[in-house]
Design goal:
By secondary structure, the protein is mostly helical. The chain has 13 helices and no strands. It folds into 3 domains: 57 residues, no CATH class; 187 residues, no CATH class; 97 residues, no CATH class. 68% of the residues lie in helices and 0% in strands. It catalyses: Fe(II)-heme o + 2 A + H2O = Fe(II)-heme a + 2 AH2.
């Protein structure tokens, strides 16, 4: 038996991570079931075990090569995963802080350049920038009394938001190029990197497309509030969530790679089938939960775009009713879900309650 134990230990050392998990119990069981063999030497027993378990012999050189390749792959995964996690964190900061929404500074910069706008460096340049702002609806209707110092404050907020977006792009592109050249990205990951890069570029364009909607000459009534299109705001947020999800998922895929679970529970097929059904059900609940979070967040963009959160400030009722009278005031009816502030707030509340 001591000889068999020695062979088992030796065999376990030579098994690579690509093989099935091999326990001592399985090896002993396989050995007992195997036909008698005349050669009971260490070499003979090891040969029989490898034959029974379909394990190819691995030379010492091959074993060292495999271990080295595995170590290099783990190191590459760590670097790539950390990079993606940093990018995802930067996107999260941009979305979570919501600087431009909280300070209502999104329309303070009335021009957009791909490479970035030059920051005013003296009073003359600041006055020139302020004069540009005065030509647009937000100043004419809402901020007629605004001073230059007040303008500087909101301009800085929008400038910081835009430069943060460009910093995200640089943080993504430069390491991506390095990892690509060094061969640290797998073929599948290269496609994902191209997709994420495309989304980041589209996000910048969508941001300006959204701002343009608030600069258009369509606010003529003194009661109008110049604001960006709620549709474009929702698209801008939706792209940000998609980019964040892509970064986070792929970062975790590199740092904490998924492993195949063995559902062969002691040979009990009924138990294995039950476990598989439960896992599929859990997976479905996870996807449903993610979908609800996404839809709720997008509905929040419509609330922000229409200032719908200012209409009713009581909970759980809206004023003194569970369902407001003007919830379907617009025609056709579908317009209410994206253009009626009452309906938009009601839907947002309802989605949050369903999710909780």
């Amino acid at each position: 038996m001591s000889l068999i134990r020695l062979c088992v230990k030796g065999l376990q050392r030579t098994c690579t991570s690509n093989n099935s998990l091999i326990t001592k119990r399985n090896i002993y069981r396989a050995l007992q079931k195997s036909p008698k063999h005349s050669d009971w030497s260490v070499k003979g027993i090891t040969h029989r075990l490898r034959s029974i378990l379909s394990i190819n012999p691995i030379t010492q050189t091959e074993s060292v090569t495999l271990r080295f390749a595995s170590a290099v792959n783990k190191k590459s995964n760590k670097y790539v995963g950390s990079w993606l996690l940093i990018c995802g964190g930067m996107v999260f900061v941009a979305v979570a802080l919501g600087i431009t929404r909280l300070t209502e500074s999104g329309l303070s910069m009335v021009t957009w350049k791909f490479a970035g706008e030059k920051m005013p460096s003296n009073d003359e340049q600041w006055l020139e920038e302020f004069e540009k702002y005065k030509q647009y609806p937000e100043y004419k209707i809402t901020n007629k009394e605004m001073t230059l110092d007040e303008f500087k404050r909101i301009w800085w907020m929008e400038y910081a938001h835009r430069m943060w977006g460009r910093l995200i792009g640089a943080t993504f592109i430069m390491p991506a190029a390095y990892f690509w050249i060094k061969g640290m990205l797998k073929s599948e990951m290269k496609i994902k990197v191209l997709a994420l890069g495309t989304l980041i570029g589209l996000q910048g364009l969508m941001g300006w497309y959204m701002v343009k909607s608030g600069l258009e000459d369509r606010f003529h009534d003194p009661m109008d509030v110049p604001r960006v299109s709620q549709y474009r705001l929702a698209a801008h947020l939706g792209l940000a969530l998609a980019i964040y999800s892509g970064f986070l998922y792929n970062a975790l895929d590199h740092l904490l790679p998924a492993r195949l679970a063995s559902l062969d529970l002691f040979g009990d097929k009924k138990l294995s089938t039950k476990m598989l059904k439960q896992l599929k059900k859990f997976k479905g609940l996870v996807y449903t939960s993610k979908g609800l979070v996404f839809v709720t967040a997008i509905s929040g963009a419509f609330v922000a775009g229409l200032d719908a959160g200012l209409i009713y400030n009581s909970f759980p009722k809206m004023a003194d009713k569970w369902i407001p009278d003007d919830i379907f005031a617009f025609t056709p009816v579908l317009r209410n879900f994206t253009e009626n502030p009452t309906t938009v707030q009601f839907n947002h509340r309802l989605l949050v309650e369903i999710y909780l």
